[in-house]
Design goal:
Layout lengths: L4 H14 L3 H6 L1 E10 L10 H14 L1 E13 L4 E12 L2 E13 L6 E8 L1 H30 L2
Parallel strand pairs: 1-5
Antiparallel strand pairs: 2-3, 3-4, 4-5
Length: 154
Protein backbone atom coordinates (compact mmCIF):
# COMPACT_ATOMS: atom_id res chain seq x y z
CA UNK A 1 0.00 0.00 0.00
CA UNK A 2 1.48 3.39 -0.96
CA UNK A 3 2.06 6.05 1.67
CA UNK A 4 -0.74 8.56 2.22
CA UNK A 5 -0.24 12.22 1.23
CA UNK A 6 0.02 13.27 4.89
CA UNK A 7 2.68 10.63 5.64
CA UNK A 8 4.68 11.72 2.58
CA UNK A 9 4.36 15.36 3.70
CA UNK A 10 5.44 14.51 7.27
CA UNK A 11 8.53 12.62 6.05
CA UNK A 12 9.33 15.39 3.58
CA UNK A 13 9.16 17.85 6.48
CA UNK A 14 11.71 15.79 8.42
CA UNK A 15 13.94 15.74 5.34
CA UNK A 16 13.69 19.55 5.09
CA UNK A 17 14.72 19.83 8.77
CA UNK A 18 17.71 17.56 8.16
CA UNK A 19 18.81 19.98 5.43
CA UNK A 20 17.83 22.99 7.61
CA UNK A 21 16.00 24.30 4.54
CA UNK A 22 13.73 26.90 6.14
CA UNK A 23 11.74 27.75 2.97
CA UNK A 24 11.09 24.02 2.41
CA UNK A 25 9.98 23.57 6.03
CA UNK A 26 7.56 26.49 5.78
CA UNK A 27 6.30 25.30 2.37
CA UNK A 28 4.73 22.26 4.05
CA UNK A 29 2.56 24.51 6.22
CA UNK A 30 -0.80 26.02 5.34
CA UNK A 31 -0.70 29.85 5.40
CA UNK A 32 -2.79 29.90 8.60
CA UNK A 33 -0.88 27.10 10.36
CA UNK A 34 0.03 27.63 14.01
CA UNK A 35 2.75 25.82 15.93
CA UNK A 36 1.77 25.08 19.54
CA UNK A 37 4.38 24.14 22.18
CA UNK A 38 3.95 21.64 24.97
CA UNK A 39 4.17 21.06 27.82
CA UNK A 40 2.36 24.25 28.70
CA UNK A 41 4.82 24.79 31.57
CA UNK A 42 7.29 25.97 28.91
CA UNK A 43 5.05 29.06 28.56
CA UNK A 44 5.64 29.42 24.83
CA UNK A 45 3.19 31.30 22.63
CA UNK A 46 1.91 29.73 19.43
CA UNK A 47 3.90 30.67 16.32
CA UNK A 48 2.53 31.56 12.91
CA UNK A 49 4.58 30.89 9.77
CA UNK A 50 6.43 34.22 9.92
CA UNK A 51 7.46 33.71 13.55
CA UNK A 52 8.40 30.09 12.94
CA UNK A 53 10.50 31.03 9.91
CA UNK A 54 12.32 33.69 11.93
CA UNK A 55 13.03 31.21 14.75
CA UNK A 56 14.28 28.55 12.36
CA UNK A 57 16.51 31.02 10.52
CA UNK A 58 18.21 32.02 13.78
CA UNK A 59 18.53 28.40 14.91
CA UNK A 60 20.15 27.44 11.62
CA UNK A 61 23.23 29.45 12.61
CA UNK A 62 23.32 27.97 16.12
CA UNK A 63 22.71 24.27 15.42
CA UNK A 64 25.30 22.68 13.14
CA UNK A 65 24.87 19.17 11.74
CA UNK A 66 21.24 19.12 12.90
CA UNK A 67 19.51 15.81 12.36
CA UNK A 68 16.12 14.35 13.12
CA UNK A 69 15.41 10.64 13.19
CA UNK A 70 11.85 9.35 13.12
CA UNK A 71 11.70 6.78 15.91
CA UNK A 72 8.00 6.10 15.43
CA UNK A 73 5.24 7.34 13.16
CA UNK A 74 1.56 6.77 13.80
CA UNK A 75 -1.03 7.82 11.28
CA UNK A 76 -4.75 8.45 11.66
CA UNK A 77 -5.75 8.58 7.99
CA UNK A 78 -9.43 9.21 8.65
CA UNK A 79 -8.65 12.39 10.61
CA UNK A 80 -5.67 13.41 8.41
CA UNK A 81 -3.29 13.32 11.37
CA UNK A 82 0.27 12.08 11.83
CA UNK A 83 2.10 11.72 15.13
CA UNK A 84 5.88 11.31 15.12
CA UNK A 85 8.30 10.59 17.92
CA UNK A 86 11.62 12.12 16.87
CA UNK A 87 15.18 12.10 18.14
CA UNK A 88 17.20 15.24 17.47
CA UNK A 89 20.91 15.95 17.65
CA UNK A 90 23.17 18.83 16.66
CA UNK A 91 26.50 20.42 17.44
CA UNK A 92 26.44 23.81 19.19
CA UNK A 93 28.81 26.23 20.93
CA UNK A 94 27.72 24.62 24.23
CA UNK A 95 28.40 21.08 23.03
CA UNK A 96 26.16 18.37 21.72
CA UNK A 97 22.42 19.04 21.63
CA UNK A 98 20.29 15.93 22.08
CA UNK A 99 16.53 16.08 22.46
CA UNK A 100 13.33 14.18 21.83
CA UNK A 101 10.16 15.55 20.32
CA UNK A 102 6.65 14.37 19.67
CA UNK A 103 4.97 16.18 16.81
CA UNK A 104 1.25 15.93 16.27
CA UNK A 105 0.50 17.21 12.77
CA UNK A 106 -2.98 17.95 11.44
CA UNK A 107 -3.38 18.24 7.66
CA UNK A 108 -5.68 19.87 5.14
CA UNK A 109 -8.15 17.72 3.20
CA UNK A 110 -5.58 16.92 0.52
CA UNK A 111 -3.04 15.83 3.16
CA UNK A 112 -0.44 18.10 1.61
CA UNK A 113 -0.35 21.10 3.97
CA UNK A 114 -0.02 21.09 7.74
CA UNK A 115 -2.80 23.17 9.29
CA UNK A 116 -1.74 22.80 12.94
CA UNK A 117 1.21 21.41 14.86
CA UNK A 118 1.46 20.44 18.49
CA UNK A 119 5.09 20.05 19.45
CA UNK A 120 6.11 18.34 22.66
CA UNK A 121 9.77 18.55 23.67
CA UNK A 122 11.85 17.49 26.63
CA UNK A 123 11.31 20.45 28.95
CA UNK A 124 14.05 19.36 31.37
CA UNK A 125 16.63 19.26 28.59
CA UNK A 126 15.53 22.69 27.38
CA UNK A 127 15.67 24.09 30.91
CA UNK A 128 19.20 22.81 31.43
CA UNK A 129 20.71 23.21 27.94
CA UNK A 130 19.55 26.59 26.66
CA UNK A 131 21.10 28.68 29.47
CA UNK A 132 24.44 26.95 28.74
CA UNK A 133 24.00 27.66 25.04
CA UNK A 134 23.17 31.31 25.70
CA UNK A 135 26.32 31.66 27.84
CA UNK A 136 28.52 29.95 25.23
CA UNK A 137 27.16 32.20 22.49
CA UNK A 138 27.79 35.32 24.59
CA UNK A 139 31.38 34.16 25.12
CA UNK A 140 31.81 33.60 21.37
CA UNK A 141 30.41 37.07 20.61
CA UNK A 142 32.76 38.65 23.18
CA UNK A 143 35.76 36.83 21.71
CA UNK A 144 34.77 37.85 18.20
CA UNK A 145 34.35 41.47 19.28
CA UNK A 146 37.74 41.42 21.02
CA UNK A 147 39.30 39.98 17.86
CA UNK A 148 37.68 42.66 15.74
CA UNK A 149 38.87 45.40 18.06
CA UNK A 150 42.39 43.92 18.12
CA UNK A 151 42.39 43.66 14.34
CA UNK A 152 41.49 47.34 13.91
CA UNK A 153 44.34 48.57 16.07
CA UNK A 154 41.95 50.05 18.65
Amino acid sequence: MPDSPQKRTALSLVDAFNRMDVPAIISHRHPTCLRHFYPTAMAQRAQDNAGYSKSLTSLRTIFRNFSLIVDELIEDSANRRVCMWLSARADTAAGEYVNEYVWLLDFDEAGEKIVRTKEFSDALMARDFFPKLKEAMATQRARAAAGQVAGTGL
